[in-house]
Amino acid sequence: MTDLQMGLIGLGGAAVIGVLGYNKWQEHKHRKLAEQLLNVRQADVLLDESPPGGASADDYAGVDGGAEAANPGAGGGARSAGSGHERVEPLLRVEPAQDDGAYEASAPFAEDSARVAPAFLSPREAPVAGRSASPQAVPGRPDDAPANAGGQAAPLYLLSPMIDYIAAIEVAEPAAAYRIREGQRAALVRIGKAVNWIGYNEDSREWEPILEDSDNAYRHIRAGLQLVDRKGPVRDGDLSVFHVALLDLATELMGVAELPLREPALQAAAQLDEFCAGVDIQIGVNVISQGQVFPGTKLRALAESAGMVIDADGRFARCDDEGNVLYVLINQETKGFSSESMRTMTTHGVTFLLDVPRVANGDRVLTQMVELARRFAEALHGALVDDNRRPLSESAIEPIRRQVVQYQTAMAHRQLPAGGPLALRLFS
Known about the structure:
There is one protein chain. The protein is α+β, with helices and mostly antiparallel strands. The protein has two domains: 52-62 and 105-274, no CATH class; 281-426, 2-Layer Sandwich (Cell Division Protein Zipa, Chain: A). The chain contains nine helices and 15 strands. It has a six-stranded antiparallel beta sheet. α7 runs antiparallel to α8 (394-413). The longest helix has 36 residues, at 3-38. The protein is elongated and about 100 Å long.
Protein backbone atom coordinates (compact mmCIF):
# COMPACT_ATOMS: atom_id res chain seq x y z
CA MET A 1 0.00 0.00 0.00
CA THR A 2 1.46 3.34 -1.11
CA ASP A 3 1.84 6.48 0.98
CA LEU A 4 -0.86 8.13 -1.15
CA GLN A 5 -3.35 5.37 -0.36
CA MET A 6 -2.51 5.55 3.31
CA GLY A 7 -2.95 9.32 3.28
CA LEU A 8 -6.34 9.07 1.55
CA ILE A 9 -7.52 6.48 4.05
CA GLY A 10 -6.43 8.75 6.87
CA LEU A 11 -8.23 11.74 5.38
CA GLY A 12 -11.37 9.67 4.87
CA GLY A 13 -11.29 8.50 8.45
CA ALA A 14 -10.87 12.04 9.71
CA ALA A 15 -13.80 13.21 7.59
CA VAL A 16 -16.04 10.47 8.97
CA ILE A 17 -15.08 11.32 12.52
CA GLY A 18 -15.74 15.01 11.80
CA VAL A 19 -19.23 14.28 10.44
CA LEU A 20 -20.08 12.06 13.39
CA GLY A 21 -18.87 14.72 15.80
CA TYR A 22 -20.91 17.42 14.08
CA ASN A 23 -24.03 15.23 14.18
CA LYS A 24 -23.48 14.60 17.88
CA TRP A 25 -23.12 18.33 18.51
CA GLN A 26 -26.33 19.08 16.59
CA GLU A 27 -28.17 16.33 18.46
CA HIS A 28 -26.98 17.72 21.80
CA LYS A 29 -27.98 21.27 20.78
CA HIS A 30 -31.52 20.28 19.77
CA ARG A 31 -31.94 18.04 22.80
CA LYS A 32 -31.14 20.96 25.08
CA LEU A 33 -33.66 23.13 23.24
CA ALA A 34 -36.31 20.44 23.46
CA GLU A 35 -35.69 19.99 27.18
CA GLN A 36 -35.94 23.74 27.71
CA LEU A 37 -39.26 24.01 25.88
CA LEU A 38 -40.90 20.74 26.75
CA ASN A 39 -39.39 19.62 30.06
CA VAL A 40 -42.91 19.47 31.42
CA ARG A 41 -45.79 18.19 29.36
CA GLN A 42 -48.20 21.01 28.40
CA ALA A 43 -51.92 20.69 28.12
CA ASP A 44 -52.47 21.31 24.42
CA VAL A 45 -54.93 21.10 21.57
CA LEU A 46 -52.56 18.73 19.87
CA LEU A 47 -52.68 15.48 21.75
CA ASP A 48 -54.51 16.20 24.97
CA GLU A 49 -57.97 16.99 23.81
CA SER A 50 -60.93 15.28 22.41
CA PRO A 51 -63.63 17.06 20.42
CA PRO A 52 -66.00 19.18 22.49
CA GLY A 53 -68.24 17.11 24.62
CA GLY A 54 -65.80 14.19 24.60
CA ALA A 55 -66.77 12.99 21.13
CA SER A 56 -64.48 10.25 19.86
CA ALA A 57 -63.52 9.04 16.42
CA ASP A 58 -66.29 6.49 16.28
CA ASP A 59 -68.80 9.28 16.85
CA TYR A 60 -68.17 10.61 13.36
CA ALA A 61 -69.80 7.63 11.78
CA GLY A 62 -73.42 8.48 12.48
CA VAL A 63 -76.10 9.77 14.87
CA ASP A 64 -78.35 7.22 16.52
CA GLY A 65 -78.03 5.09 13.44
CA GLY A 66 -76.35 7.92 11.52
CA ALA A 67 -77.87 9.73 8.67
CA GLU A 68 -80.10 6.70 8.02
CA ALA A 69 -82.56 8.15 10.48
CA ALA A 70 -82.59 11.38 8.57
CA ASN A 71 -83.88 9.70 5.45
CA PRO A 72 -85.78 6.45 5.69
CA GLY A 73 -86.69 6.37 2.02
CA ALA A 74 -85.09 4.32 -0.70
CA GLY A 75 -82.81 5.44 -3.49
CA GLY A 76 -79.14 5.62 -4.21
CA GLY A 77 -77.72 8.84 -2.87
CA ALA A 78 -74.26 10.23 -3.45
CA ARG A 79 -72.37 13.06 -1.95
CA SER A 80 -72.60 16.33 -3.84
CA ALA A 81 -69.41 17.64 -5.33
CA GLY A 82 -70.40 21.14 -4.37
CA SER A 83 -71.19 22.36 -7.86
CA GLY A 84 -74.05 24.77 -8.15
CA HIS A 85 -75.49 22.61 -10.91
CA GLU A 86 -75.33 19.36 -8.96
CA ARG A 87 -78.32 19.16 -6.68
CA VAL A 88 -80.75 16.70 -5.24
CA GLU A 89 -84.15 16.76 -6.88
CA PRO A 90 -86.64 17.73 -4.16
CA LEU A 91 -89.03 14.85 -4.67
CA LEU A 92 -86.27 12.28 -4.64
CA ARG A 93 -85.47 10.67 -1.35
CA VAL A 94 -81.71 10.46 -1.07
CA GLU A 95 -80.30 7.53 0.81
CA PRO A 96 -77.21 8.59 2.74
CA ALA A 97 -74.17 6.44 3.08
CA GLN A 98 -74.65 3.57 5.50
CA ASP A 99 -72.58 3.23 8.62
CA ASP A 100 -71.18 -0.26 8.89
CA GLY A 101 -69.81 0.43 12.31
CA ALA A 102 -66.38 -0.55 11.02
CA TYR A 103 -64.52 2.14 12.89
CA GLU A 104 -64.13 1.85 16.60
CA ALA A 105 -61.25 4.15 17.41
CA SER A 106 -61.62 5.63 20.83
CA ALA A 107 -60.27 9.06 19.85
CA PRO A 108 -59.08 10.73 16.65
CA PHE A 109 -55.65 11.88 17.69
CA ALA A 110 -54.63 10.80 21.17
CA GLU A 111 -52.75 7.72 22.34
CA ASP A 112 -54.33 7.57 25.74
CA SER A 113 -57.80 8.15 27.00
CA ALA A 114 -56.89 10.96 29.38
CA ARG A 115 -57.93 14.41 28.21
CA VAL A 116 -56.87 17.91 29.21
CA ALA A 117 -58.83 21.08 28.52
CA PRO A 118 -57.85 22.30 25.05
CA ALA A 119 -56.12 25.57 24.45
CA PHE A 120 -58.86 27.23 22.53
CA LEU A 121 -62.08 25.80 23.92
CA SER A 122 -63.97 27.57 26.59
CA PRO A 123 -64.13 25.96 30.03
CA ARG A 124 -67.75 25.11 29.36
CA GLU A 125 -66.68 22.95 26.41
CA ALA A 126 -63.54 21.48 27.93
CA PRO A 127 -63.42 17.78 28.84
CA VAL A 128 -62.43 16.69 32.31
CA ALA A 129 -58.68 16.87 32.82
CA GLY A 130 -56.89 13.57 33.05
CA ARG A 131 -53.33 14.91 33.26
CA SER A 132 -51.90 18.01 34.82
CA ALA A 133 -48.96 20.18 33.85
CA SER A 134 -47.36 23.13 35.52
CA PRO A 135 -47.36 26.09 33.17
CA GLN A 136 -44.68 27.85 35.19
CA ALA A 137 -42.28 25.02 34.51
CA VAL A 138 -41.74 26.11 30.91
CA PRO A 139 -39.32 29.06 30.82
CA GLY A 140 -40.56 32.26 29.28
CA ARG A 141 -44.15 31.18 28.84
CA PRO A 142 -46.92 33.51 30.04
CA ASP A 143 -48.67 32.33 33.17
CA ASP A 144 -51.84 31.52 31.29
CA ALA A 145 -50.49 30.60 27.85
CA PRO A 146 -50.94 28.56 25.90
CA ALA A 147 -52.30 25.80 28.06
CA ASN A 148 -55.46 27.58 29.04
CA ALA A 149 -55.11 30.80 27.03
CA GLY A 150 -56.63 32.79 29.84
CA GLY A 151 -59.93 30.98 29.36
CA GLN A 152 -60.37 32.63 25.96
CA ALA A 153 -61.81 30.46 23.22
CA ALA A 154 -60.61 30.81 19.66
CA PRO A 155 -63.35 30.81 16.99
CA LEU A 156 -64.00 27.33 15.67
CA TYR A 157 -63.44 28.42 12.11
CA LEU A 158 -59.75 28.80 12.97
CA LEU A 159 -58.97 25.29 14.15
CA SER A 160 -60.94 22.45 15.64
CA PRO A 161 -59.74 18.98 16.63
CA MET A 162 -63.03 17.66 15.30
CA ILE A 163 -62.10 18.35 11.70
CA ASP A 164 -58.39 19.27 11.70
CA TYR A 165 -55.13 17.37 12.07
CA ILE A 166 -53.33 19.82 14.34
CA ALA A 167 -49.58 20.23 14.63
CA ALA A 168 -48.03 22.20 17.50
CA ILE A 169 -44.73 24.09 17.18
CA GLU A 170 -43.02 25.72 20.16
CA VAL A 171 -40.01 27.98 19.57
CA ALA A 172 -37.63 29.66 22.00
CA GLU A 173 -37.53 32.97 20.13
CA PRO A 174 -40.67 34.50 18.55
CA ALA A 175 -40.90 33.74 14.83
CA ALA A 176 -42.22 36.39 12.45
CA ALA A 177 -45.52 35.64 10.74
CA TYR A 178 -44.01 35.77 7.24
CA ARG A 179 -41.30 33.25 8.23
CA ILE A 180 -43.95 30.85 9.53
CA ARG A 181 -46.12 31.10 6.43
CA GLU A 182 -43.26 31.05 3.92
CA GLY A 183 -41.19 28.33 5.56
CA GLN A 184 -42.76 25.29 3.90
CA ARG A 185 -45.03 26.91 1.32
CA ALA A 186 -43.58 24.91 -1.58
CA ALA A 187 -44.37 21.62 0.17
CA LEU A 188 -47.77 22.55 1.59
CA VAL A 189 -49.09 23.92 -1.71
CA ARG A 190 -49.11 20.34 -3.01
CA ILE A 191 -51.69 19.31 -0.43
CA GLY A 192 -55.27 19.14 -1.67
CA LYS A 193 -56.81 20.25 1.66
CA ALA A 194 -56.91 23.58 3.45
CA VAL A 195 -54.16 24.39 5.96
CA ASN A 196 -55.00 26.97 8.64
CA TRP A 197 -52.50 28.70 10.93
CA ILE A 198 -53.00 30.27 14.35
CA GLY A 199 -50.58 31.73 16.85
CA TYR A 200 -50.84 32.80 20.46
CA ASN A 201 -50.65 36.58 20.81
CA GLU A 202 -48.91 37.16 24.13
CA ASP A 203 -50.06 40.77 24.28
CA SER A 204 -53.77 40.11 23.81
CA ARG A 205 -53.47 36.60 25.36
CA GLU A 206 -55.61 35.15 22.60
CA TRP A 207 -55.17 32.80 19.67
CA GLU A 208 -55.39 34.54 16.31
CA PRO A 209 -54.87 33.73 12.62
CA ILE A 210 -51.29 34.01 11.43
CA LEU A 211 -51.48 36.37 8.46
CA GLU A 212 -48.69 36.70 5.93
CA ASP A 213 -48.66 40.49 6.08
CA SER A 214 -48.81 40.62 9.88
CA ASP A 215 -46.06 42.28 11.91
CA ASN A 216 -46.63 39.91 14.82
CA ALA A 217 -44.30 37.15 15.93
CA TYR A 218 -45.24 33.95 17.76
CA ARG A 219 -43.64 31.37 20.02
CA HIS A 220 -46.71 29.13 20.21
CA ILE A 221 -47.87 28.04 16.75
CA ARG A 222 -50.60 25.68 15.61
CA ALA A 223 -51.19 24.47 12.05
CA GLY A 224 -54.28 22.47 11.16
CA LEU A 225 -54.77 20.31 8.07
CA GLN A 226 -58.48 19.97 7.35
CA LEU A 227 -59.38 16.29 7.31
CA VAL A 228 -62.50 16.42 5.11
CA ASP A 229 -64.16 18.61 2.50
CA ARG A 230 -66.56 17.98 -0.36
CA LYS A 231 -63.78 16.32 -2.34
CA GLY A 232 -63.55 13.61 0.27
CA PRO A 233 -61.22 12.70 3.18
CA VAL A 234 -57.56 13.63 3.40
CA ARG A 235 -55.22 11.21 1.65
CA ASP A 236 -52.37 9.40 3.36
CA GLY A 237 -49.91 11.08 0.98
CA ASP A 238 -51.17 14.57 1.87
CA LEU A 239 -50.95 13.77 5.56
CA SER A 240 -47.37 12.56 5.07
CA VAL A 241 -46.41 15.76 3.23
CA PHE A 242 -47.95 17.86 6.01
CA HIS A 243 -46.23 15.81 8.68
CA VAL A 244 -42.76 16.17 7.15
CA ALA A 245 -43.28 19.84 6.27
CA LEU A 246 -44.20 20.82 9.83
CA LEU A 247 -41.22 18.93 11.27
CA ASP A 248 -38.95 20.72 8.81
CA LEU A 249 -40.54 24.04 9.67
CA ALA A 250 -39.87 23.47 13.35
CA THR A 251 -36.22 22.81 12.51
CA GLU A 252 -36.04 26.01 10.44
CA LEU A 253 -37.47 28.03 13.33
CA MET A 254 -35.17 26.35 15.88
CA GLY A 255 -38.16 24.89 17.66
CA VAL A 256 -39.84 21.61 18.47
CA ALA A 257 -42.90 20.14 16.73
CA GLU A 258 -45.44 17.65 17.98
CA LEU A 259 -47.93 15.92 15.71
CA PRO A 260 -50.68 13.39 16.39
CA LEU A 261 -50.46 9.84 15.15
CA ARG A 262 -51.34 9.58 11.48
CA GLU A 263 -53.31 6.35 11.41
CA PRO A 264 -56.01 7.43 13.91
CA ALA A 265 -56.32 10.71 12.00
CA LEU A 266 -56.90 8.86 8.72
CA GLN A 267 -59.47 6.64 10.38
CA ALA A 268 -61.28 9.63 11.88
CA ALA A 269 -61.23 11.36 8.47
CA ALA A 270 -62.83 8.35 6.80
CA GLN A 271 -65.56 8.20 9.42
CA LEU A 272 -66.21 11.93 9.30
CA ASP A 273 -66.41 11.86 5.52
CA GLU A 274 -68.89 9.01 5.66
CA PHE A 275 -71.12 11.00 7.99
CA CYS A 276 -70.81 14.17 5.89
CA ALA A 277 -71.68 12.26 2.74
CA GLY A 278 -74.87 11.07 4.37
CA VAL A 279 -76.17 14.58 5.10
CA ASP A 280 -74.78 16.45 2.10
CA ILE A 281 -77.75 17.34 -0.08
CA GLN A 282 -78.95 20.31 -2.09
CA ILE A 283 -82.61 20.97 -2.84
CA GLY A 284 -83.59 22.58 -6.13
CA VAL A 285 -86.92 24.17 -7.05
CA ASN A 286 -87.40 25.03 -10.73
CA VAL A 287 -89.39 27.77 -12.44
CA ILE A 288 -89.75 27.04 -16.17
CA SER A 289 -91.40 28.91 -19.01
CA GLN A 290 -94.63 27.76 -20.59
CA GLY A 291 -94.06 29.16 -24.05
CA GLN A 292 -92.52 32.60 -23.68
CA VAL A 293 -88.95 32.97 -22.44
CA PHE A 294 -88.13 34.87 -19.28
CA PRO A 295 -86.54 38.29 -19.98
CA GLY A 296 -83.40 39.08 -18.00
CA THR A 297 -84.63 42.53 -17.04
CA LYS A 298 -87.72 41.12 -15.36
CA LEU A 299 -85.74 38.39 -13.63
CA ARG A 300 -83.36 40.96 -12.23
CA ALA A 301 -86.18 43.20 -11.03
CA LEU A 302 -87.87 40.28 -9.24
CA ALA A 303 -84.64 39.07 -7.68
CA GLU A 304 -83.49 42.47 -6.46
CA SER A 305 -86.93 43.24 -5.03
CA ALA A 306 -86.53 40.05 -2.96
CA GLY A 307 -83.16 41.24 -1.61
CA MET A 308 -81.03 39.05 -3.87
CA VAL A 309 -77.73 40.22 -5.36
CA ILE A 310 -75.48 38.83 -8.09
CA ASP A 311 -72.39 37.08 -6.69
CA ALA A 312 -69.01 36.31 -8.25
CA ASP A 313 -70.27 32.94 -9.52
CA GLY A 314 -72.99 34.46 -11.68
CA ARG A 315 -75.85 33.62 -9.30
CA PHE A 316 -78.41 35.69 -7.47
CA ALA A 317 -77.82 35.08 -3.76
CA ARG A 318 -80.19 35.70 -0.85
CA CYS A 319 -78.24 36.37 2.33
CA ASP A 320 -79.17 36.88 5.97
CA ASP A 321 -78.27 39.96 8.00
CA GLU A 322 -74.80 38.57 8.73
CA GLY A 323 -73.98 37.95 5.06
CA ASN A 324 -74.47 34.18 5.13
CA VAL A 325 -75.98 32.75 1.94
CA LEU A 326 -79.44 31.26 2.50
CA TYR A 327 -80.19 30.14 -1.06
CA VAL A 328 -79.26 31.09 -4.62
CA LEU A 329 -80.96 31.51 -7.99
CA ILE A 330 -79.13 30.05 -10.97
CA ASN A 331 -79.76 30.08 -14.71
CA GLN A 332 -80.73 26.67 -16.09
CA GLU A 333 -78.95 27.56 -19.30
CA THR A 334 -75.18 27.74 -19.53
CA LYS A 335 -74.76 31.47 -19.17
CA GLY A 336 -74.59 32.90 -15.66
CA PHE A 337 -76.09 36.16 -14.51
CA SER A 338 -74.24 39.47 -14.68
CA SER A 339 -75.25 43.11 -14.47
CA GLU A 340 -74.35 43.66 -18.13
CA SER A 341 -75.96 40.56 -19.61
CA MET A 342 -79.28 40.92 -17.77
CA ARG A 343 -80.30 43.75 -20.12
CA THR A 344 -80.43 41.51 -23.18
CA MET A 345 -80.45 37.90 -21.98
CA THR A 346 -83.41 35.54 -21.93
CA THR A 347 -83.83 32.08 -20.43
CA HIS A 348 -86.30 29.22 -20.44
CA GLY A 349 -85.91 28.45 -16.76
CA VAL A 350 -84.25 29.22 -13.44
CA THR A 351 -83.59 27.15 -10.32
CA PHE A 352 -83.70 28.10 -6.65
CA LEU A 353 -81.06 26.09 -4.80
CA LEU A 354 -80.76 25.39 -1.06
CA ASP A 355 -77.50 23.90 0.23
CA VAL A 356 -78.82 22.07 3.31
CA PRO A 357 -75.60 21.61 5.39
CA ARG A 358 -74.58 25.26 4.95
CA VAL A 359 -77.82 26.86 6.19
CA ALA A 360 -79.16 27.08 9.72
CA ASN A 361 -82.89 26.47 10.26
CA GLY A 362 -83.13 24.79 6.89
CA ASP A 363 -86.87 24.04 7.15
CA ARG A 364 -87.70 27.74 7.56
CA VAL A 365 -85.35 28.74 4.75
CA LEU A 366 -86.89 26.08 2.50
CA THR A 367 -90.35 27.49 3.16
CA GLN A 368 -89.14 31.01 2.30
CA MET A 369 -87.41 29.80 -0.85
CA VAL A 370 -90.44 27.89 -2.12
CA GLU A 371 -92.71 30.87 -1.46
CA LEU A 372 -90.39 33.14 -3.43
CA ALA A 373 -90.23 30.60 -6.25
CA ARG A 374 -94.03 30.61 -6.42
CA ARG A 375 -94.04 34.42 -6.68
CA PHE A 376 -91.49 34.19 -9.52
CA ALA A 377 -93.65 31.60 -11.32
CA GLU A 378 -96.74 33.80 -11.06
CA ALA A 379 -94.95 36.98 -12.15
CA LEU A 380 -93.22 35.29 -15.08
CA HIS A 381 -96.26 33.19 -16.08
CA GLY A 382 -94.14 30.10 -15.58
CA ALA A 383 -94.59 26.80 -13.79
CA LEU A 384 -93.13 25.55 -10.52
CA VAL A 385 -91.79 22.02 -11.10
CA ASP A 386 -89.34 19.47 -9.78
CA ASP A 387 -86.39 18.19 -11.79
CA ASN A 388 -88.65 15.69 -13.53
CA ARG A 389 -90.82 18.63 -14.66
CA ARG A 390 -93.71 17.53 -12.49
CA PRO A 391 -95.78 20.25 -10.79
CA LEU A 392 -94.49 20.96 -7.31
CA SER A 393 -97.34 21.18 -4.81
CA GLU A 394 -97.22 21.92 -1.09
CA SER A 395 -97.98 18.27 -0.35
CA ALA A 396 -94.85 17.34 -2.29
CA ILE A 397 -92.73 19.87 -0.41
CA GLU A 398 -93.74 18.77 3.09
CA PRO A 399 -91.83 15.43 3.08
CA ILE A 400 -88.76 17.28 1.89
CA ARG A 401 -89.12 19.78 4.73
CA ARG A 402 -89.24 16.92 7.25
CA GLN A 403 -86.13 15.40 5.73
CA VAL A 404 -84.27 18.69 6.03
CA VAL A 405 -85.12 18.78 9.74
CA GLN A 406 -83.87 15.21 10.19
CA TYR A 407 -80.61 15.85 8.37
CA GLN A 408 -79.87 18.99 10.33
CA THR A 409 -80.80 17.32 13.61
CA ALA A 410 -78.22 14.63 12.85
CA MET A 411 -75.62 17.33 12.19
CA ALA A 412 -76.40 19.10 15.45
CA HIS A 413 -76.08 15.82 17.32
CA ARG A 414 -72.60 15.47 15.90
CA GLN A 415 -71.72 18.99 17.08
CA LEU A 416 -71.58 20.09 13.44
CA PRO A 417 -74.66 22.33 13.30
CA ALA A 418 -75.82 23.26 9.81
CA GLY A 419 -74.68 26.73 8.86
CA GLY A 420 -72.13 26.82 11.69
CA PRO A 421 -68.42 27.56 11.20
CA LEU A 422 -67.41 23.90 11.14
CA ALA A 423 -70.13 22.97 8.65
CA LEU A 424 -69.18 25.87 6.37
CA ARG A 425 -65.61 24.59 6.32
CA LEU A 426 -66.54 20.94 5.82
CA PHE A 427 -69.10 21.55 3.08
CA SER A 428 -67.01 23.84 0.92
